[in-house]
């Protein structure tokens, strides 16, 4: 009989959460109120709430109550911080050895003995991003570090937190027009440095290859590419830009083969290109594949500079692109320290742009005489 009762309480509360009647971030009524509402005992209510917590719908904050953290469940709530600890929430799109892993290491290394860092992955899903931010805030996070999937769409939860003066740090991106702190690389200068290097090798007809992504990093790298053309008094031809690759965009259904076919067409129509700037490593690998299909040799016929690169330590035979190296560890470390600072003074807004450096690899060479 008791099992039936606790399942009835569980299902009623779950239905209220999934319908939005109990909103994410809302505190549940006290246990005594739930006992009166469902006409059950304390043990029945406790079993129902425990099940909802285990399924990721609720999170209990000592001395504050039980809060709704997700309308869909399926994800365990963030662990409660130890007494006296500060909980810092972090939502990343994703990470791998090319970009993100070292940034995550910087975040972890910056965590202090009296802080708890909880990391979530959105996989580029804006709705999931919004849910995760709400869940972390409801779980008692003192600050949120967010690597957003878009620089144009701001999750409603983030807007609400910014409006309340809640400490938020945007990581590896910027939100133009919003009073919110951010930590990222100086991508405009980095884009210019990459392009300047190709010009210094004697290349003049340059292309730009990027993903179809609405993030400030891609936009800023393009701005640097265009600025370098102006600095060298070389006309910039927008027709030499290819911004339709999609396989590297989180949440896209496009495959690498789709992009290789598209890039093969792009390069075939622009045999006069002498160099290209590619805004991320994984795309550079696809460009290399497309070039080889056309018999274009790298770097003899085409020089490439990309952004980011996996470490060579365990695979010294891997082809190394000339690339822009970001200080990922410093990015993560700085973001965490800034988040902590904002918990003490949330009124200020600080935007940090970190230096990058050019690493010369095998994908670039001086222009050959005609």
TrEMBL record:
Keywords: DNA-binding, Repressor, Transcription, Transcription regulation. One of its GO terms (molecular function) is DNA-binding transcription factor activity. Residues 3-71 form the HTH gntR-type domain. SMART domains: HTH_GNTR (SM00345). It comes from Salana multivorans. This is GntR family transcriptional regulator. It holds the Pfam family GntR. It comes from the Bacteria.
């Amino acid at each position: 009989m008791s099992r039936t009762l606790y399942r009835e309480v569980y299902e009623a509360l779950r239905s209220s959460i999934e319908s939005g009647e109990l909103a994410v971030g809302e505190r549940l009524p006290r246990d005594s109120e739930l006992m009166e509402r469902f006409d059950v005992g304390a043990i029945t209510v406790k079993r129902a709430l425990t099940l909802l917590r285990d399924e990721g719908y609720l999170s209990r904050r000592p001395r504050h109550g039980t809060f709704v953290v997700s309308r869909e469940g399926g994800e365990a709530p963030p662990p409660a911080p130890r007494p006296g600890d500060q909980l810092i929430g972090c939502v990343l799109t994703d990470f791998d050895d090319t970009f993100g892993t070292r940034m995550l290491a910087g975040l972890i290394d910056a965590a202090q003995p009296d802080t708890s860092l909880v990391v979530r992955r959105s996989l580029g899903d804006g709705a999931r991003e919004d849910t995760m931010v709400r869940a972390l805030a409801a779980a008692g996070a003192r600050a949120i570090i967010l690597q957003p999937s878009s620089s144009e769409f701001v999750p409603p939860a983030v807007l609400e937190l910014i409006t309340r003066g809640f400490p938020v740090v945007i990581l590896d991106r910027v939100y133009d027009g919003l009073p919110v702190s951010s930590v990222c690389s100086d991508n405009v200068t980095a884009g210019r440095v990459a392009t300047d290097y190709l010009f210094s090798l004697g290349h003049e007809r340059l292309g730009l290859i990027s993903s179809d992504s609405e993030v400030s990093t891609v936009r800023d790298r393009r701005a640097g590419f265009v600025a370098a053309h102006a600095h060298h008094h070389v006309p910039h031809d927008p027709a030499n830009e290819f911004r339709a690759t999609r396989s590297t965009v989180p949440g896209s259904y496009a495959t690498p083969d789709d992009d290789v076919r598209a890039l093969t067409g792009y390069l075939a129509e622009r045999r006069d290109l002498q160099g290209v700037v590619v805004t991320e490593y994984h795309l550079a690998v696809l460009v290399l594949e497309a070039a080889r299909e056309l018999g274009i040799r790298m770097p003899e016929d085409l020089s490439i500079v990309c952004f980011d690169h996996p470490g060579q330590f365990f695979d010294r035979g891997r082809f190394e692109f000339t690339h822009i190296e970001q200080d990922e560890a410093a990015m993560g470390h700085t973001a965490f320290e800034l988040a902590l600072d904002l918990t003490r003074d949330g009124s200020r807004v600080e935007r940090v742009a970190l230096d990058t450096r050019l690493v010369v690899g095998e994908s670039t060479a001086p222009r050959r005489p005609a």
